[in-house]
Amino acid sequence: MIWEIDDGEKQIEGLDATGHPDPGYAASLGLLPAPFGRRTMATLAELLVLALFALPAMLVATPALAEILSGAGDAGAMLADGALVWPIVTLAVGNVLATVFIVVQLVLLGRKGVTAGKAVFGLRTVNVRTLERPGFWRGAVVRYLVLSLSFLLPLLGPLLVVALSPFFDSERRGRSWLDQAGATWMVDVRRGLNPYDVKRMRIARKSVRITEHASGPALPSLATPVERDAPAQYTPSGRLSGGVIGAHRRMSPPQPGAPGAPGAPVAPTATPVAPAAATPFTPAVAPTGMVDAVPPPLVAGQLLDSFAPSPAALTPPSGAGSDESAPSPAAAAPAASAAGGVPAVRAVLRLDDGSRVEVRGATLLGRAPAPVAGEGAMQLVAVADDTRSVSKTHLAILPSRRGVLVVDRGSTNGSAIVRDGSDLTLTPGDPVPVQAGDVVRFGDRTLTIERA
After folding, report:
1. Helices marked H in 16-35 — which ranges?
2. pTM of the model
């Protein structure tokens, strides 16, 4: 079972050491600041809508108000005659429409980061720290209060707060005094990334994390040779291993009279033989099935040791100390695998489109999977993905004596194992055991591990 402990604090990406938003992180995601011209046009468009709501009231009520102020008409008499009915009605309707418009603007800005003017000119507003929705109170209400107060200084106030203040931004991100009061940032979604496109935003964040991970030390590939035990430490035997080829054996005590036993004659010293060159690693399939319990994760250096040892390690030593009853590798293979030379099915992968893939050996999944040099023959499974969220070589499924392992091959959008509602993000290059029922998410695709 995978346990995830929530410490109650949300980890915010893109903050510097002092806790302030890092403009470089937003730029690496593809977010672009809103240009000056369209910012101004968006604000003027919203003010124009408010002016249109007030226009009927101004046209109808202005003559009546001018008549009353000039003394040509009596307000009481005009009210009794019904001359003020239409001015009062148009004023009320105009105020109601303007209030509804402003409330809708506030709600849309707080929840979606968009208003009527921003929607027309391709702009969105986000929280400057989280790059998510601004929030209703500070991101919307405080922003509009500052804008309303700017009208106390007619013409010059709105011009300074809306149009000129972005040029005073010390971070060069085009944040106006409205943005600084509301802790927001206005971005351009026509030329840059739309932060409210959840899928593309998630892919962009993962791409930045993968890039940061790739800048660290290089991870060993599946073909990296590792140190193995000497062949003398293995004694293949059906009696000791239950027929599993390549399992670790106990050291057999030397037989009397055998070389190296106590009292045995000392053989003449032979000229040392240079060790043979390391052969490229070829994955072998162990005949055991999947395990029910999840063993502890392997470290990167143990990946190759999860498979059967090299053919040299499987060859029993010659001489009096060898086990005459040890079967050959062909004889030790299970009967299910012997027919036609086809390895036994270790697991079944059920993809989210309903297709099923039998895992008989090392398997690579991706849009166009290909092994690296030295990995030998591998089963390649091409996965269709129109959104290109799946990398060309995204996942490796590796049967081993410990069950079935899943390895992320340095994919762009990452991979994760979902078990009992908990997600375990895979670190590129690190094998993680899986069991029947686990769901592996790679990019925007998923597969389920099933028992063979």
Report:
1. 23-29
2. 0.48
What the block records as the tokens of 37 is 């011209």
* CA 175/CA 143 separation, integer angstroms: 12
Answer for the pair 240, 250: CB distance below 8 angstroms, yes or no: yes
Helices 143-150 and 85-112 cross at an angle (nearest 10°) of 140
Do 286 and 401 contact (CB within 8 A), yes or no?
yes
Pairing of strands 347-351, 363-366: unpaired
Question: How many helices (DSSP H) and strands (DSSP E) are in the chain?
Answer: 13, 14
Calpha distance 307→300 (Å, rounded) = 13
Angular region, 55: left φ>0, alpha ψ -120 to 50, beta rest: alpha
**Side-chain-facing half-sphere of 52: CA atoms under 13 Å:** 7
Whether 108 contacts 37, CB under 8 Å: no
Q: On the CB side of 291, how many CA atoms lie within 13 Å of its CA?
A: 14
**pLDDT(3) > 70:** no
Q: Please tell me the total number of residues recorded for the chain in this structure.
A: 452
The predicted-structure confidence for 371-384, as pLDDT tens digits, reads as follows 888 787 889 999 99
